Amino acid sequence: PHIVRRQDYRPPDWLVPDIALDFALDAAATRVHATLSVTRNGDHDRPLRLDGDGLLPLEIRVDGAVLAADQWSLDGGTLTIALSNSAHMVETFVEIAPQGNSKLMGLYASGGLLCTQCEAEGFRRITFFPDRPDVLSRYSVRMTADKALYPVLLANGDPVEQGDLPDGRHWARWNDPFPKPCYLFALVAGDLACNADRFVTMSGREVQLGIWVREADLPRTAHAMQALKNSMAWDERVYGREYDLDVFNIVAVADFNFGAMENKGLNIFNSRYILADPETATDIDYDGVEGVVAHEYFHNWSGNRVTCRDWFQLSLKEGFTVFRDQNFSADMGSHAVKRIEDVRILRAAQFQEDSGPLAHPVRPESYMEISNFYTATIYNKGAELIRMMALMLGPERFRAGTDLYFDRHDGEAATCEDFVRAMEDGGEIDLAQFRLWYEQAGTPHVRALLSHDPATQSVTLLLEQSVPPTPGQPEKRPMAIPLRTALFDPETGQHRGDELLMLTEARQSVTFAGWPTAPILSINRGFSAPVIVETNRSQADLAFLSAHDDDPFARYEAMQQLMVNVLVGRIGGQPVDEDAVVAAIRDTVTNPLLDPAFIAEAIRLPSEAYLGDQMAVVDPDAIHAARDALQRRIGAELEPLWRDMHGKTKANAFALSPAAKGARKLRNTALLYLAASGAADGATVAFGQFSEADNMTERQAALATLANGASAEREAALDIFYNRYRDDALTLDKWFQTQAFAFHPDTVDLVEELGRHKDFTLANPNRVRALYGAFAGNQWAFHHKSGKGYRLVADCIVALDKLNPQTAARLVPPLGRWRRFDEARAAMMRAELQRILLEPGLSKDVTEQVSKSLE
Ligand code: HT7
Ligand code: ZN
Question: Taking every annotated instance into account, which residue ranges of this chain make up the domain Peptidase M1 alanyl aminopeptidase Ig-like fold (predicted)?
C-alpha cells in the first residue's frame, strides 16, 4: 500500500473557496449534489483531482455543461478533470448508502439517525472533493428528508431557512461563514430532542446552545450542558477566546469510532461522553463527559479557526487541545489528582507505545493509514510538549505566545513549527533544541544521582540522559528536558526552593552548596517532563518523600516507587521490606491534612502493566502473584483501618462535589483492600455496597471487587446488574467490561463466552472496546499461558476488519508487544499476527499496524 511522507507535502493545485451541498437524505440511498467553485492555485496546468472513496459520479458538470465520459477519469477513487481557466464551477452528483456503511466514516446510520464522521478522510466517502486539511471552503448545505423519520435537520454553522415539501418531506439550509477544511463538515438528521440553553459571550453576544439526544435521554444531558458553559467561560478567561457563531449544537450518537468530533458548530459525540446520571454513570464517566465536551469545544480555536496544514501536524491541534482540556478539568476539580491521573494514562498508553514497534514521533514522518495515528503519542505526549513550553515560559509569556499563535494563524492551516515559532516570538525564548521533542520518538531516560560531600558541605546532582532507539531512528540526540527539582532537609522536612533545571547535555552536573548533611532529592516534580527517571534514592528516602514532599505529584510518585521497588524485588526473588509499604500506606490514609481523592491515588498499587514495564522480560503470572500477595498483606494488616474508612466515607445522599467524589474513591479503595484482607465477610460487605449504592461509582466498584473473587455473591451481583441494565447499552457495556477486566483465573474463558453472548455485537465500537479492548488491557488474563487470549483477540480483529477496520486496527497494539514477553508467549503472539496478515482483503488500517508489529 501507498506510504504518505511528510517531506512530500506540496500546496494544493486547486482551491475551493465555496461549496454548496444538496443532500436528498435517505438511509438506503442518499443523493449528493455538490457545487464547487474552484480556483487554480499558482501557475500550473495540472488537472483538478478530487478524492473519492467508493463513489461513482452519476453526472459531472463544469460551468453548467455536462461532461462527456472522455472528459473525466476515475482512478483508485480519484476523479480527474482537465480544466482550462483559472476558475470554474464544478458540479458532481453521486448516490451513497448510509445504511450499509459499517465503517462509520462518511455518512452513516446509527439508531435511526443519519450522521457524519469526516475526520480524517471520511468526506471523500460523501462527495468528490480535495480531501486535505489545507483546502478551506465556505459551506452552504441544503438537506431534504422524510419529515416523520428525520424531523430535525442539522449542519455546521447557523440555520438559514427551512420549509415543508410535498410527499411528507421537508428541507433546511445551513450556512457556515467560516472557511473550514472538509474534515470539519457535519450533518445530522433524525428524531431528536433538545436540551436548549444559552451563553452570553464576553463581548455580549448571545449563543444558542443545544444538546440533541433521543427523547428518553434528555434527563441525562445536564452535566454535559454545564460542562459546555463552563468551557466557554474558561476559554474566554484563560485564553481570551470567544465563540464565533450564533448556535452551538452537540448531537449524541450510539455508534461512533472515537470519543467525539469537533465539527464546526455541530459537535458529534459518542453518547458515552454526553449522557450521565448517578444511576448509570460513574464519577470517571462524569469526568469523561466534562473533559471531552471541553476538548471538542476548545477545538473551535485550536483546530477549527487555526487548523492543520496536513495530517503530520495532527498534534498541533490534538496535543494543544488535550493540554487545554487537562488544565480546564484541573481548574474544575483538583490540580493534584488530575495531574496524577493524566500521568497514569500517559505511562499506561504512551510510554508503552513509545517503547514498542508502533513508536513514532509527535510529528510523524510517514503513514499508510492516517486513522492509525490518532495515538497517545500525538494526543498525550503532544500535550506534554505544550506543558513543557508553558513551564519554561511561565504563564504570562505562554499566554503572549498563544495570543500570537491565534492572531497570526487565524483562518489558516498551520504547522507544529508555526506553533513553536509563535512561542519563541511571543514568549521570547529560544526553542531550537526543544524542537527535537517533535522529531524524536522514544521516552527519554534520565539518571539522577545525588552525591554528598561532607568536606565541602555540598551536594552534586549528576544528570545523564539517553533516548532509546525506535523504529527508523537508531541514533538519538540529547533533548532539552525541564526538571523541576528540590532538595529536602531530612531534619526539618522542608526544602529550600523549587528550581527548574534544564538538562540539555547527555551528561551534566549541578552542585548545591550549604548542605552539611545529605539532603533528599525530589525531581521531576509535577512530572515536569515526560521522561523515565532513575535515581539512587533509598527506600527510606522514598518513604520520607511520601510523607513530606509538598509537591503532590512527587509525593504520589515517591509512594509508587516505594511499592514498585518492593514488587519488582519480590518478583525477582530479592529480600524486600514490605513493612515500609504498609507503614507508608497507614500514614497516608490516616493523615487528616490530605485530600481523600489524593489518598486513594497514592495508596493504589501500581498496575500489573506498569510493573511489566519495569522488567526486562514481562512475566504476567509472577507480576500478578506478587501484586496480589502485597494487596492481601496490606488488606490484612490494616483491616480495621479499611473497615473504618469504608464506614466513614459512606454518604447519606448522592452529590457530585469534589469532596463527595473523593469520598467515593477512597471508599472503593477501602473496599478493595478489605476484600483482599481475607476477612470472612469481604464478599458480604462488597455485596452490601453493591445492593445499597445510590450511584454507579459505588455499584460498579463493588461489582468489580466481587468479580475478582469466586464467591456466590459474584454470580448474584452479575445477574442483578445484567437484568437491571440489559436495555441500556452504555451501562450494559460496564457489565461486559467489568468481567473482561476481572483478576480471575477464568477470565479468558469467560471472555470467549461473552463474545458469543446475545448482547454482544461487533457493529457497536463501544461494545467491542468494552469486551475485547478491556480484555487486551488485562495483562494477566490476556497473556494466559495457553495463548487463548491472543487467539480471541486475533479472531475479533479478523472478523471486525470486514466491518470496521478503524476499530479493528486499534486492537492490534497489545499483540504487537510480543518482544517484551518470554519466548513461548512471543511465538504465539507473532503467530497470531502472521495469521491476521494472511487474511484476504485485509484493510490498510490493520495491515499497517500488523506489518509494523512484525518488523
Ligand atoms: N478530532 C477528533 C478525531 C476523530 C476521529 C479520528 C479518526 C476516526 C474517527 C474519529 N472521530 C473523531 C476527535 C478529537 O480529538 O477531538
Ligand atoms: Zn481532539
Answer: 442-535
